[in-house]
Amino acid sequence: MKHDTAGDPMSGLRWTRRTTEKIAQELARAGIRVSATTVRRLLKKMGFSLRVNHKKLAGKSSPGRDQQFRYIARMRNRFTRKNWPTISVDTKKKNNGATSEQAPRLVSDHDFLTLATGRFIPYGVFDQTTNLASVFAGVTADTAAFAVESIEKWWRFTGSRTYPEADHLLILADGGGSNGNRNRAWKVHLQELLCDRYGLTVTVCHYPAGTSKWNPVEHRLFSYISKNWVGQPLDSYETALNYIRTTRTKTGLRVKAYLVKKEYKTGVKISNAEMKTLAIKRHKIQPERNYTLTPR
């Protein structure tokens, strides 16, 4: 079920795309015979909420949603077999802090309260294979340059040491924002900072619109960070970073956190000429969401 699980980064609730009947059928094929009722009871013990499942699946579905999920699962399995790294990335979009304190604390849209003097923009890089994550907290703007430089730092600090023989990297990302599939600067920076600089072949698969909670970084990293600092007055960068660094789970999640003081400019335009210089190959399946960049 690891490729069919989603979760809310704020509440920690989880759900799965598979019905209890289908899960029971797959267990039977593996020689474990249990009823759908037993599966439902076990899922509840594991923290899955059936009520939330129904709510989350309601509404308009993104075109090609299921096909893209299947393709992402195939790509993840392929990279795992070859011992190539797969990372899930995103910016923490909402920050919960239910408290009556007047001190500055993290709230929605990555900002401190209006009276505060700083911004805190956590960009997460999560390696599901090792259950290790790095969070790079920016203080200016959530841009493509900030996103890719965070990934580059992860590769330099952690990834290249964990996977010394790897020359391929798979990135799972949402379809919008600083790492969106239509963001030209995102592709240009990937080309320059990862492919050309380190000789990496980088494949990117984007989740369809409205399905960000299926991205592992949301329910395997940010949900636990939210639980760790919920209701706490995050009145300084060091306090916020400390809560991130001390986030732990029973399954062994460990998190590193860094403060990024660099100033990032917004509104940077990428020309058609620059796009033509990219060594990019779009995949046959949903080419706007799946593509590979190679070193030039």
Structure notes:
There is one protein chain. The chain contains nine helices and ten strands. α1 crosses α2 and α5 packs parallel to α6. A hairpin with a 6-residue loop joins β1 and β2. It has helices at residues 20-29, 36-45, 50-57, 65-81, 144-162, 184-198, 216-229, 237-245, 272-276; strands at 5-7, 14-16, 86-91, 121-127, 132-138, 168-173, 201-206, 254-260, 280-282, 290-293. It has 296 residues and is of the alpha/beta class. It has two domains: 5-57, no CATH class; 65-293, no CATH class.
Structure in a nutshell:
The chain is α/β, with parallel strands linked by helices. It has helices spanning 20-29, 36-45, 50-57, 65-81, 144-162, 184-198, 216-229, 237-245, 272-276; strands at 5-7, 14-16, 86-91, 121-127, 132-138, 168-173, 201-206, 254-260, 280-282, 290-293. The protein folds into two domains: 5-57, no CATH class; 65-293, no CATH class.
What characteristics describe this protein?
alpha/beta, 36% helix, eight-stranded mixed β-sheet, 2 domains, single chain, 296 residues, 9 helices
- General shape: globular
Largest sheet report: 8 strands, mixed
Q: What order do the strands of the largest sheet run in, or round the barrel if closed?
A: 8-5-4-3-6-7-10-9
Strand content: 15-25%
Mean model confidence by pLDDT: 84
- First and last CA, distance: 38 Å
Please give the number of β-strands: 10
Radius of gyration: 20 Å
What's the SSE pattern?
Answer: EEHHHHEEEHEHEHHEHEE
Structural class: alpha/beta
Which regions have little confidence, pLDDT < 50, spanning 5+ residues?
51-59, 96-115
Number of domains: 2
Total helix count? 9
Q: Helix content range of the residues, please?
A: 25-40%
